[in-house]
């Protein structure tokens, strides 16, 4: 099924590419942020069309390798078998664990979050005293958000098959916003007042805590290329990395790449 989905995405991208413009494909976490930057870019460059597609980080990596998009996007680092692409860091993001805004819980431990998603903690009674079932909502296989969550939170534990599976950060957010018993995880930059982002181990997922690395659960937002960019693709990447483009990403709740300190 996953292969059929990737093939479907590749077909859509190929058709769009044939109509001209710059095709960006991949992470649904990166998508809303790069769409915002693309809107500003197209306002300043009305003759250039930037077409931003989702599909997930794995789909974006494969589309870049297969040359069915001009620029790929990923919210996770590349696996050894995926390397060989040119990788451009545009920002850092955090993974926020979210609850319904009516929840009395403001702080969870890594072990508690892991327990809910592994199926070992099935009732809120173990956490806030309410004798109600925990409803965990996760992302689909191939999602960069899920891969980051598995690496940083789950460790050696598997995400339970009993979890509800959604194909975007927005879909997870909508379910949590309307499900008092739900728990999910999304990009920190996409958290709004419809849900509650909780602290992990006493540390809130704030921009300040991400910058100082007090909040440890961060991941890269990447643009991917098969080769050195040319033409309109090069112009767009230069815009994303420009002070204006980086400011737009920062205004959206991300840590722009120009603020990231590399050891």
TrEMBL record:
Which Pfam families does this entry report, sorted A to Z? PBP_like_2 (PF12849)
Q: Which residues form the PBP domain?
A: 17-244
Q: Where is the signal peptide?
A: none
On the tree of life, the source organism's domain of life is Bacteria
| InterPro entries assigned | PBP_domain (IPR024370), Phos-bd (IPR011862), Phosphate_ABC_transporter (IPR050811)
Q: One GO molecular function term?
A: phosphate ion binding
The membrane-spanning stretches of this chain are: none
One GO biological-process annotation of the entry reads: phosphate ion transport
Q: Which UniProt keywords apply?
A: Phosphate transport, Signal, Transport
> Which family does the UniProt entry place this protein in?
Belongs to the PstS family.
Report the function annotation for this chain.
Involved in the system for phosphate transport across the cytoplasmic membrane.
Q: What is this protein called?
A: Phosphate-binding protein
Q: Which organism is it from?
A: candidate division WOR_3 bacterium SM23_42
């Amino acid at each position: 099924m996953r292969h059929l989905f990737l093939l479907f995405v590749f077909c859509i991208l190929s058709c769009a590419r044939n109509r001209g413009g710059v095709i960006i494909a991949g992470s649904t976490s990166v998508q809303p942020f790069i769409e915002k930057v693309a809107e500003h870019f197209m306002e300043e460059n009305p003759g250039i069309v930037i077409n931003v597609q989702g599909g997930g980080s794995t789909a974006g990596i494969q589309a870049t390798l297969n040359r069915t998009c001009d620029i790929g996007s990923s919210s996770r680092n590349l696996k050894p078998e995926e390397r060989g692409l040119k990788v451009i860091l545009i920002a850092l993001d955090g993974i926020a664990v979210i609850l319904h805004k009516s929840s009395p819980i403001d702080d969870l431990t890594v072990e508690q979050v892991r327990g809910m998603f592994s199926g070992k903690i099935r009732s809120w009674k173990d956490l806030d005293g309410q004798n109600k079932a925990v409803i965990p909502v996760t992302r689909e296989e191939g999602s960069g958000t899920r891969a980051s969550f598995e690496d940083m939170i789950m460790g050696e534990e598997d995400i339970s098959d009993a979890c509800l599976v959604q194909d975007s950060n927005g879909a997870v957010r909508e379910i949590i916003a309307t499900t008092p018993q739900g728990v999910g995880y999304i990009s920190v930059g996409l958290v709004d007042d419809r849900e509650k982002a909780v602290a992990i181990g006493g540390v809130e997922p704030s921009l300040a805590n991400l910058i100082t690395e007090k909040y440890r659960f961060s991941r890269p937002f990447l643009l991917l290329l098969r080769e050195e960019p040319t033409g309109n693709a090069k112009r767009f990447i230069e815009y994303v990395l420009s002070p204006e483009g980086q400011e737009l990403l920062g205004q959206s709740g991300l840590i722009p790449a120009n603020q990231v300190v590399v050891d």
